[in-house]
Amino acid sequence: IPKELQATITTAQATLYGSIKNPQGKLQLSANGQYKQQPFVLSGDLTKTMDTVVIKNSSLTVMEGKAKINGQFQTDSMQGNLNVSANAMPLTLLELAGVSLPDTLTATISTQLTLKGTLAKPSFRGIASIQGHYQDIPFNTDATGSYQDSNLQLEQLTLHALEGEAQIRGAFHTDTLQGNLNINANAMPLTLLKLVGVSLPETLMATVNTQLNLKGTLAKPAIKGEVSIHGKYQDIPFNTDVTGSYHESNIQLERLRLH
Question: pTM of this prediction?
Answer without folding.
Answer: 0.82
